[in-house]
Design goal:
Protein name: ABC transporter ATP-binding protein
Oligomer: single chain
Pfam families: ABC_tran, TOBE_2
Number of domains: 2
CATH topology of the largest domain: Rossmann fold
Number of helices: 10
InterPro entries: AAA+_ATPase, ABC_SmlMolc_Importer, ABC_transporter-like_ATP-bd, ABC_transporter-like_CS, Mo/tungstate-bd_C_term_dom, P-loop_NTPase, Transp-assoc_OB_typ2
Organism: Niallia alba
GO molecular function: ABC-type transporter activity; ATP binding; ATP hydrolysis activity
Low-confidence stretches: 348-358
Strand order of the largest sheet: 7-8-9-3-10-11
Bound molecules: adenosine-5'-triphosphate
Distance between the termini: 33 Å
Length: 358
């Protein structure tokens, strides 16, 4: 188990991480999700042992690994890393890359040549590269290079695998394929994975739990479903799921009246206290139900309608607010200039169904 307590990291006067508290269970797949500059890589570097924290501690399997005056260096931690840039050596073949940790790493060291060969074959098979084992990095595609980096990272069976945006240099289709492969490898190996990404789709699809970060702090920790369906802050509701934040007023605890439509009222569907306190109601783009304009309903004028294959993405002007709506292609189509009514799916079950069908 890894325990992070009160972790802080300053670079000079600048605080890159502040009061980070997190417990990771053995075998968990944790995604660290946040925008550029929020401190994701800093957290990963602290976990790897590249630098000391300014305050707080990291404990790995009940042993203090880092504090402001102690640092267990990377080579003394049973960890591996995979980077966005692959970090391969141009003069080594695929097979030599994968054998490297077995020869040199303190934890993965495997003395017998035969045992080494078995482990290399296993790792090559796991990432589907057996047929390319004699190639050099310059002779591989981006996806194949990342598979080499992955095989090199897992061959020594580390207890912790740190991945820093490993798929961001790959094209969209390959990213989807690699998501599945990393998921399969995680299930097979049972290694604890910390996976840094700014891509919400990756985090939602792959992780057991997501840690959403902003500005050096943790905003929310939870399962993908809870992060998506029950964001606790305005930041999480807009960063994950791209909610529209409708302005209005909460009447009592349970009823919301949109500012521009006093005759409309929406019920509470588990909106957090923090969001309520700002008199906002978050509505995700796919949560809207468009219809012909009706009296006593929220309405707007379609500005744009973009065909996306499985969905139509509308931009709708409603009073001063521009509302984004994702509608199924099977629903009634609207055109720019049409006045439409905007209702929302409020049943929690409906919302979960919608979320899981995306
Ligand atoms: N060595 C350093 N010296 C000074 N400031 C730094 C240093 N490294 C990072 N920072 C700053 O700390 C903040 C967090 O950086 P970090 O690299 O952890 O962010 P990130 O979330 O990984 O961003 P990205 O997704 O762009 O890689 C940023 O504002 C960055 O400019």
């Amino acid at each position: 188990m890894i325990s992070i307590d009160g972790l802080k990291k300053n670079y000079g006067n600048f605080t890159a991480l502040d009061n980070i508290n997190l417990e990771l269970l053995n075998g968990e797949f944790i995604a660290i999700l946040g925008p550029s500059g929020c401190g994701k890589t800093t957290l990963l570097r602290l976990l790897a042992g590249f630098m000391k924290p300014t305050e707080g501690t990291i404990t790995i399997d009940n042993e203090l690994a880092a504090s402001s005056n102690k640092l267990v260096p990377p080579e003394k931690r049973n960890i591996s890393m995979v980077f966005q840039s692959f970090a391969l050596w141009p003069h080594m073949t695929v097979e030599e890359h994968i054998r490297f940790p077995l020869k040199h790493h303190r934890f993965g060291k495997t003395k017998g040549k035969e045992e080494q060969a078995i482990k290399v074959v296993e790792a090559l098979e796991m990432v589907g590269l057996s047929h390319l084992k004699d190639r050099y990095p310059a002779e591989l595609s981006g996806g194949q290079k990342q598979r080499v980096a992955l095989a090199r990272a897992i061959v020594s069976k580390p207890s912790l695998l740190l991945m820093d945006e490993p798929l961001s240099a790959l094209d969209a289709e390959l990213r989807m394929e690699m998501r599945r492969e990393i998921g399969t490898i995680h299930r097979k190996l049972g290694t604890t994975i910390i996976y840094v990404t700014h891509d919400q789709g990756e985090a939602l699809a792959m992780a057991d739990r997501i840690v959403v970060m902003n500005d050096g702090k943790i905003e929310q920790i939870g399962t993908p479903e809870s992060i998506y369906n029950a964001p606790q802050s305005v930041f999480v509701s807009t960063f994950v799921g791209k909610s529209n934040l409708i302005k209005g007023e909460w009447v009592g605890e349970n009823r919301f009246i949109p500012a521009n439509f006093p005759s409309v009222s929406w019920q509470d569907i588990g909106i957090s206290k923090e969001i309520k306190a700002q008199n906002l109601y978050p509505v995700r783009p796919e949560q809207w139900k468009l219809g012909e304009a009706e009296q006593n309903q929220m309405t707007g004028i379609v500005q744009f309608a973009q065909f996306q294959g499985n969905e139509i993405h509308y931009s709708i002007q409603s009073g001063e607010e521009t509302i984004n709506v994702y509608a199924s292609v099977f629903e009634k189509r609207f055109l720019p200039g049409d006045t439409v009514s905007l209702k929302i799916y409020t049943g929690v079950e409906e919302r979960v169904l919608l979320a899981s069908s995306r």
